[in-house]
Amino acid sequence: MEENIDEKRQIWLTRVEPFDGESISHFLGRFRREKGNKFSAPSGLGDVAGLGVVLARWEKFYFNPFPTHQELDALATVVELDAERLRQMLPPEGVGMKHSPIRLCGACYAQSVCHKIEWQFKKTVGCDRHQLRLLSKCPVCEKPFPIPALWMDGQCQRCFTSFAEMAEYQKPY
Ligand SMILES: [Zn+2]
Ligand SMILES: [Zn+2]
Q1: Of 34, 45, 81, 107, which is least surrounded by CB within 10 A?
Q2: Residue-wise pLDDT tens digits, 108-148
Q3: Which ligand is nearest to the Cα of residue 135, counting in written order?
Q4: H or E element that contains 133
Q5: Ligand index nearest the alpha carbon of residue 131
């Protein structure tokens, strides 16, 4: 089994470097779509990692039951990261998650094109870095943000306002 995964990885898996603070949903989406990887659905990657459908839940920020060491190790092998690095893409123990709405700090996104895990903590009110409230939908057309695994071009899918531009609409907090 172990050998089998190694063989496959050598043939067709491309490593993807995580961003600081990146959420597991955003990372998994990028990894699946990376040139050479091309998993259209989370289940494809889940099969290779021996994790089945659990990745689809993680992409939606459902961590109940919480990912086990074994699961993180299995995924770490496939994505060629340390399990500890994957652990940083999850909430700290005991921190509750908001599954929806998906939230955004456009000012952060302008600096680092990723969705940050801390934006989905229940306790998070705004962005500490920019002292701005988070957006919970497109401020121009009000379309909700899709799950970060589906963020491909950094813009609203309906009105095409870029996530970075949305910083102008964030209120101070
Ligand atoms: Zn920010
Ligand atoms: Zn929009």
Answers
A1: 34
A2: 999 999 999 999 999 998 999 999 999 999 999 999 999 99
A3: 1
A4: strand 132-133
A5: 1
Please, which residues bridge with residue 172 across strands? 132
Q: Which fold has domain 2-87?
A: 434 Repressor (Amino-terminal Domain) (1.10.260)
Distance 41 CA to ligand 1 centre (A): 30
Rounded to whole angstroms, the Cα distance separating 147 from 112 reads: 17
Q: Is 95 helix (H, G, I), strand (E, B) or coil?
A: coil
Cβ-Cβ contacts under 8 Å for 60 (sequence gap 6 or more): 25, 99, 147
Q: For the ranges 7-11, 38-42, 78-82, which has the lowest average pLDDT? A: 7-11
Ligand with an atom nearest the CA of residue 107: 1
Domains of the chain, by residue range, sit at 2-87, 92-173
Closest-approaching ligand to the CA atom of 111 = 1
Compute how many other C-beta atoms are within 10 angstroms of the C-beta atom of residue 7.
10
Q: How far is the CA of 167 from the centre of ligand 1 (A)?
A: 8
Helix (H) / strand (E) element for 165: namely none
Single-letter residue type at 117: I
Q: What is the spatial distance between Cα 20 and Cα 112, in angstroms, rounded to a whole number?
A: 8
